[in-house]
Structure formats: C-alpha cells, structure tokens
Design brief:
Elements: E1 4-6, H1 9-17, E2 24-27, E3 44-45, H2 55-69, E4 74-75, H3 77-83, E5 87-91, H4 101-108, E6 116-120, H5 125-138, H6 142-164, E7 172-177, E8 182-183, E9 185-186, H7 188-194, E10 203-204, H8 213-219, E11 223-226, H9 233-243, H10 253-256, E12 260-263, H11 276-287, E13 305-307
Parallel strand pairs: 1-2, 1-5, 5-6, 7-11, 9-10, 11-12
Antiparallel strand pairs: 3-4, 7-8, 12-13
C-alpha cells in the first residue's frame, strides 16, 4: 500500500475524494477535511495558527517571518521519517499557504526510499482539475481521478451555461484580506467570470495582491464577497466589523444595497480542491439568486455563506 503524507489541505481533500484516505498517514496542521484527517499525525506547525491574532497582526507577523526565515512553517522531521511516506503532496504556489516545495524536496532526498514529491501549483480552475489528475496518476488511481474531474467539470459547466444567458453582470469585489486590503487572484477571477460577475480588481491567474482602499471605492462594487484566506465565517465576521470602519465604506453601492457576503473561504474559495466547484455554486447564488436559488444562503446558520449587508 502506498503511504501518503499531505502537507496541504486541498491535497488531503483530493486524496480523500480519490478514495485514498486510508493511505494518508500524515497531514499538515491545517488539514481538517474530511473528518478522518483530524485523526492523522500532523507533521507541520505554524505558531500563528489559531493564535487569535487580528488580520493586521497576522499580516505583519507573516511578512516578518518570511523576511527572517523564508517560511512561516516548521516540519516535524523525526515524525516524517517515522511515517516513511512513499509520496509527499505539497505545493510551490504560495509560501504563506503551506510549506515551500524547495524545503520539502530537500528533506525528501534525505528520507529512506526517497519519496516522490508531488507539486501542486494551480493558477486557474482548470489547473485545480489538472492537480487532481496529477495526484491520481502518482497514486495509481488515474481512472478514478478522470471520473472525478468529469463530474466536477460537469457541475462547473452547468453553472457556466445557465449564467451565459444572464444579461446583467454585476460589479463584484472578491476580497481575500481586509487589513491590509487584498484583491483576489489565481482561480478567484475565474469563479467570478463563470458565475457572470465582473471584478475589475481581480488578478486572473496571478498572485492576489495588496491594493489601496481607494481602489475599492473607485471600483464601486455592487456586491462584496469577503473570501478571506484561511478564515471561516466566524473569523470573517470579525474582519467585517473592521471593514465597516474604513473611510467611506457606507458610500459603496454594495453597502447601500445590502449586498455584503461572508463565505467560509478556508473550506471553499481558498482551498483548491474538489470543493472549489462548491465555491463557484456559492458565488452564483450570491451574484444571481433568482437564477440560482438552490445555491442561495439558507440564513445566519449557513456554514458556507451568510449575508450581512441586508438593509
């Protein structure tokens, strides 16, 4: 049996969706889905994880840690050696999202048997699906991967087809961080585009970027979606209260129209695995609730998305 260590929450979800969870012997400190992941040994650590810091404090700590150490994570090397992985799933996309590929690759060369290091680096929705295929191929379940991808593409294309007939394309700001403000990047603009929205601030297939608050004011979004990287709805709610104190926030069309939404980005938008299609469906329900009523928030207890800007 292949022994898999996943250093990325999305990779753990991919492995689970491919029926490989029994072969996952170790995970990162952030892997929390499916629930079986919580029973696996955690081979990474981050001091800021669940430390209760504000978003501004997190931003400053991350910048300083990356400047001083080149990473914000530590790997439990003795545990990793004990787990004897055949495959390590990691990423090269973002030094803030998970342990860097270079660190993992160098360590893997010193491990018994030299495990295969599988790098996931998605910039777009199609890249995410390609990563699923990459994991399936490496783990010997390519047919399962192709079947899963086909199902996910079918759901995504169903949204695209229905949205293509909508004349109105509302101005939408998909926000990845509040303090300081960050626009969306990578696959985020793909989701907005497919769901028939327009985000002039998004950076399609590029890294998300810090922007000036004045840029948001000038973009005059009609809908704002707080998809804050690594945050669930409760954490996003705290930052929404901070956002409300930004200059001229109340003048934004999204505020005047009561169209502010908080989403569980930790589970969906910021996690490039199978549930990225759920993210697309959530966004379709936000942008066009009449056309996609089945994806609309069910209320304040909805763990996926809640509307906080209702007038």
């Amino acid at each position: 049996m292949i022994r898999i260590v996943s250093l990325l929450p999305a990779a753990t979800e991919i492995a689970a969706a491919l029926g490989l969870m029994d072969q996952v012997v170790g995970v990162s400190h952030e892997c929390d889905f499916p629930k079986e992941a919580n029973a696996r040994p955690r081979v990474t650590h981050c001091p800021v994880h669940n430390a209760g810091l504000t978003s501004g404090e997190v931003d400053r700590w991350v910048r300083q840690a990356v400047h001083d150490n080149g990473t914000i994570y530590t790997i439990d090397e003795p545990l990793l050696r004990q787990l004897r992985p055949d495959i390590i799933l990691t990423q090269k996309l973002c030094d803030v999202c998970a342990v860097g590929y270079g660190t993992v690759a160098r360590l893997a060369e010193t491990l018994p048997g030299r495990p295969q290091v599988v790098n996931l680096e998605p910039e777009s929705l199609s890249d995410i699906f390609n990563d699923i295929r990459c994991v399936g191929e490496a783990c010997g379940v390519l047919e399962r991967a192709d079947q899963l991808i086909a199902r996910l593409w079918e759901r995504a294309e169903a949204v695209r087809r229905r949205a293509s007939g909508i004349a109105n394309r509302p101005r939408c700001f998909l926000m990845e961080w509040v303090d300081p403000p960050f626009c969306s990047g990578h696959w985020g603009p793909d989701l907005v585009e497919i769901a028939c929205g327009y985000d002039s601030l998004g950076r399609k297939h590029q890294h998300s970027a810090q922007i000036e608050w004045l840029e948001v004011l000038n973009a005059r979004p009609e809908i704002m979606v707080l998809a804050l990287c690594g945050y669930d709805i409760n954490r996003a709610r705290r930052d929404y209260e901070l956002l409300r104190r930004f200059p001229e926030f109340e003048s934004l069309p999204a505020v005047l129209g009561g169209e502010i939404y908080l989403v569980n980005a930790s589970a969906y938008f910021a996690r490039p695995g199978p549930r990225i299609v759920d993210s697309l469906e959530i966004l379709a329900g936000i942008l066009h609730p009449q056309e996609f009523p089945e994806f609309v928030s069910t209320g304040r207890d909805d763990s996926r998305v809640i509307r906080v800007g209702r007038k």
